[in-house]
Every structure is written in C-alpha cells, then in structure tokens.
Design a protein that fits this description.
alpha/beta; six-stranded mixed β-sheet; 12 strands
Amino acid sequence: MKPITIKDIAKKCGVGVSTVSRAINNHPDISEETKSMIMEVIKENNFVPNNSARNLKLVQTKTIAVLIKGIDNPFFQNMIKVFEEEIQNRKYTFILQRVDSNQDEVQVALQLIKERKPKGIVFLGGCFSHNEELLKQITVPFVLSTISMIEDVNRDLYSSVSVDDINESKKAVDCLCDYGHRDIAILAAHPWDKSISGLRIEGYKKSLKERNIPINENLIRYTLKNENAFTMKNGYELMKELLESNEKFSAIYAISDSIAIGAIKAILEAGKRIPEDYSVIGFDGLDITYYYNPSITTIRQPVEDMAVETLNILFDLIENKSANQHKLFQGELMIRQSIAKLNK
C-alpha cells in the first residue's frame, strides 16, 4: 500500500497542506479545534511526517527568535514592540519564546534551534551565566540584550547590548550620597543572580567604598523566593521585611523601577512619607515613574535605541557583515520628587 502523504491528510481534513504543517509543528497560528481534528486524522492513518522535508523547509524559514526571561517585567514591553516591528520590516518572522525563571535559556535555545531553525536569536533579560562549551553549541548568531556575560568567556563567542550596569548603578548611589545619605538600602534580585543584580550591587558597593561609607550587609536585601524578582510585588515584600527589621536607613535604591514602585507602596502603608522619611531611587526609566506620585527618580535606559542596535548587530552577523560586537549604552539620571537632601 502506498504510504499516506501530507497532501492526503490535508484532503481528508478539508484544509490546506500548510495548515497540516502548522498543526504538526505546533504553530500558534491555528485553532485548537482544527489542530485536534488534523492530529486525530494523522493518528487514525498512522501518518509519519517526513522529518527531512520538514527540516529542510524550516531551514529555509526566515525567523528570528527572542527568548525572554521575565516576560512580566514592564521594562521589556517597549523593546518587544521594537523587535517585532523591526524584524517584520526586514521580512523575517518574529517568534517570542518565554523562558521561566527556573529554566536554562541556553537549553531552551538549543531546543528551539532544533525545532524551528531560526536564523538568529536574541536573549532578553535573565541571569546569563554559561560556560564556553555550552555557548559553542548554539549554531546560529545570537545577541545578549540588556544583559551581560559575567563568566570568564571569550567575548568573540557572543555579542551583547546593555548599559554599563556597574557604573550606572554607582551613578544612582552617588546621587543619594551627594544628597547626604549614608545609610542606603538596596533591594536586589536573587543572591545567585550575578549578572544584572550582581553588577548593580557591585556598583552600589563601589560608590559607598569610594566615600569610605561602611557597607551594612543587612541593608542588601535579596529575593529569596524562586520567582521573577523584577516585580512590584517583590519590591513590596522586600520593603516590608526591611521596615520590620528595624535596620537604620534613610534611602532605598531599588535595582528596577518595578521593585521601587512596590517598595513605595510598603513605605506609604507603614505611615511613612516619601521623600521626607525615605528617599527612593529606581532603575530603568519606565514611563510610569514620571506619572507616579511622587514621581520617581530613576536611571533611564534608552530601550528603543538598545533594541534597534541589538537587531542591527544580529543581522550583521546573519549576513556575515561583521564579527561579534559589544555595545554599551549610557543611562540618564532622572532626578524627580522621590529623593530629598538629608537634613544634617
């Protein structure tokens, strides 16, 4: 008996071959009802997809995958919008792949390369700490966006686009110190996050050390729960714990604006005022920080420029126009109502 083909399946289901292909590849652009019907017919007829043909077709697909760790972080919203528009303008397909906080983004990427054969990958957010051998397994060009590699890895193996987290963080703490604050708390991510959170803690410590201000480890508040740290909820909980600890402090540096907003809610609920009782500074430059009351002092990252540069580098790599590149952007200190000079 002649083996059944994908065309036969399409005919039996009354759909096109491309629709059957989308069902087999678990593509989101197909209704669950249609997908279930197709998969049932495939099962009934013992149809085995031709992997060689499928893979050949996938190799030819012009796709860019963006792997995002921390999808509920509002900081990434504008970047994702730019990614989608720019990728589509270049006549490529855009895939947004969520990576959970407990997942290894490189393993997710390797699986995605196997299944979808993207032309390039953007790693967005998360704690990126991987060895050279693992990175060498990624067979397509990739760029780390908003994150830095913190292991001792050959920089020729990857590209990156970010702000200088250490110096921008130092800039935030320097501002508080210039306003007369010495007892400055920092609300950080997980202790094992050595990239974004670790680098910003390093900038915090660098500022204090340069001014001979003793570092109180009790004022470094880490996220201990295995969840996304860059959220308002996390900032709220960290701030409540700090207030209940009876540690002495006059200012709070939150390593993201979302954390800062959550922290402010906890402070106000405790009957304290901002900035009269506590000064608060965030990091990222979310639009909401300007409209919040009081408006929040923050380090603004040029997210749209960073997103465009990420794709410029990625497509240069895809088109063999350049080798791996590393681009650092400067942040901008936006001084607003949430900080005040300390009365001496």
